[in-house]
Amino acid sequence: MSNETATVAGERKESMRKGIYILPNLVTAASLFAGFYSLVSTLNGNYSTAAIWIFISAVCDGLDGKVARMTGTTSKFGVEFDSLADLVAFGVTPAFLMYAWALRPFGRLGWVAAFLFLVCAALRLARFNVQVDTVESKRFVGLPTPASACMVASTVLLFYHLNWPSSFKKLAILGLIYLLAFLMVSNFRYYSFKDPAFIKRQPFGFLLLAVVLLIVIAAEPVIMTFSVLLLYILSGPIDYVVTWPRRRRLEKAVHKGREALNREGDV
Length: 267
Prior knowledge:
Structural class: mainly alpha
Shape: globular
Strand content: under 5%
Largest sheet: 2 strands, antiparallel
CATH topology: Four Helix Bundle (Hemerythrin (Met), subunit A)
CATH superfamily: CDP-alcohol phosphotransferase transmembrane (TM) domain
Order of helices and strands: HHHHHEHHEHHH
Number of strands: 2
Radius of gyration: 22 Å
Number of domains: 1
Helix content: over 70%
Distance between the termini: 49 Å
C-alpha cells in the first residue's frame, strides 16, 4: 500500500470514528423507506399507492441535501448514502412498478425495458457522482433519476385518474420507458433549480404566473403534474435543438483559434 493510499484510508477511518450526522441521513433514510414501501405496494397490486410513495420519496430526496447544507452537516458518507438510496427509490422501484403494472404482457421485451431503465438510472447516478465537482450546478447532464421516476409514477396515476382501460397500456408505455432510459444517460442538459437567483427578487408577473400555475395544479393535480413533468423531460432535447446553431458557431470559432495558434507555432 502506497503512502497516499494509506493516508486516504486513515482519513476515512478517522471520519467514521467521529460519527455521522443524524438529521440529513435520517431524511435520506425516509426517502429509502418510501421507495421500499412503494415496492411493497407494487407486490400487493396497489399500483396507485406505489406511485404516490415514489413522489414522497422524491420530496424527501430533495430535502436531505438542503437540510445538510442549511445545518452545515454535509459529508462524504451522506453523499454515498443518498446515491444508494436513490438507486433503490428511483431505479429499482419505478422499474419494478412499470414491469408489474404494464410491461409484463410484453414478455422478454418488457423485462428488458424495465432492466434498461434500472441500469441507466445506476449509470446516471454514477456519472453524477464523478462529475459533481466539474459540471455547473445550474444544469444536470442527463435527465435526473427523481424526475424520471416521478414521470413513471405520474403516468400510473394518470391512467387511474382517467379510468383508461388496460388495453391502453401497450406500446406507448414501452416507448416511454425506453425514452426515459435514454434521456438519463444522454448529454441533454436539464435545469436543476439550484440557481440562487431563482429565490431572489423577481418581477411581479413571475409571481402572478406562479400563483396561476398553483391554482391550476390544485384544480387538476394528476393531469397537471403529468403535464409539468412531461414538459420538463422534453425541455432537454428542445434546449439542445434550440442552442445547436450557437454551439456550432462557438465550435467553429474555437477550431479557427486552434488553427491560428498552430500556424503561429509552425512559424
